[in-house]
Amino acid sequence: MSNDLDSGQERYLVPGLVRGIRILRLFRSDRPVISAPEMAQELNIPRSTVFRLAQTLEFLGLLEKVEHGQSYRLGVSLLSLGFEFLASLDIAELGRPIADALADRTGLSSHVVIRDGTDVVVVYKAAGRSAFTGALTPGARLPAHATVLGRVILADMPDGELDALYGGKALEASSDKTPVRLDDLKKLLAEDRTRGYAVSDSFFEQGISAIAAPVRDHTGRAIGAINTTILGAADAREDLDALIVQVCDSADQLSRSLNFRPDGMGAQRRAV
Fold first, then answer.
1. At 114, phi and psi to the nearest 5?
2. Extents of the domains making up the chain
3. Regarding beta strands 141-143 and 119-126, do their DSSP bridges make them parallel or antiparallel, or are they unpaired?
4. Residue 116, strand partner residues
5. CA dihedral of residues 122, 219, 105, 114 (deg, nearest 10)
6. CB neighbours (10 Å) of residue 236?
7. CA 67 to CA 133: how far, in whole Å?
8. Mean pLDDT lowest among 26-30, 76-80, 164-168, 210-214
9. How does strand 34-35 pair with strand 71-74?
10. Mean pLDDT confidence for 127-131
11. Domain 7-74 has CATH 3.30.360.10
12. Are 225 and 149 in contact (CB under 8 A)?
């Protein structure tokens, strides 16, 4: 165990988990491949134990075998965890002033989210000036298929990825407008994709509307979304078109902060 742990801390640790994490920590940019015997020698643990730990980490996608031998490299699942974490840090930090400015201009609450599996996770909230601020706070999770925040991210995914993500399962309904079949969801996503943004009217919660647009990284992939929330029906607002433009502009600004370089996408979105 690490020398900076006292005996009181050590007795609550899980030895197998500690050893597994120590195996992962052996990998570095200048050492991307490590053999099982090397792991055993450097960590001073039996080879049989290393074999079981490496097999478990491989099963979880945290390690990958190299050419079916005794050597391993970090797996895609571990890398994706790191990328998603970094993305969430970047989008939250860079999105803070943009969401604040959107809330100041509109007087309405704004949220920045990322996708985690079939959920979206709120990473930042800017409260508006109106009495209605909404119940969502950073860390809150919402089903992606049941929210426009999630839909504008899912709309960026090919059908094959959507099939793999939802696995043919029935989708849970949050309201009477929630698509409960993947085919129905795909129809909505096709419309969202064409517009480049989405507007809801009691889609997730009765009496609450929202406008959302996707946020893209340097690869052009939608990694998050930004929205503004409205108490009541969106269609009843005379400034709806102006609100859509402001949300899309905010999404474009945040995307540019993440090094996305649009090629006509923004102009298409603002044709409301």
1. -125, 165
2. 7-74, 79-269
3. antiparallel
4. 119
5. -10
6. 10
7. 54
8. 76-80
9. antiparallel
10. 73
11. no
12. yes
What are the tokens at 63?
């390690």
Say yes or no to pLDDT of 15 above 90.
no
User: Is the C-alpha dihedral spanning 225, 231, 233, 237 positive or negative?
Assistant: negative
Per-residue pLDDT of 76-113, as tens digits, reads 777 666 656 656 667 888 999 999 999 999 999 999 99
Residues in the chain: 272
Nearest to 97 by CA among 221, 217, 226: 226
Amino acid identity, position 156: D
Alpha helices, DSSP H, located in the chain: 7-10, 15-25, 36-43, 47-59, 76-106, 148-154, 159-166, 182-195, 240-257, 265-269
Q: From CA 148, how far away is CA 252, in angstroms rounded?
A: 17
How many C-beta atoms surround the C-beta of residue 137 within 10 A?
Answer: 11
For the chain, percent of residues with pLDDT exceeding 70: 85
The answer to whether 223 touches 91, Cβ cutoff 8 Å, is: yes
Mean pLDDT, residues 217-237? 88
Instruction: Let me know if domain 79-269 sits in CATH 3.30.450.40.
Output: yes
Q: Left if phi > 0, otherwise alpha if psi is -120 to 50, otherwise beta: which for 175? A: beta
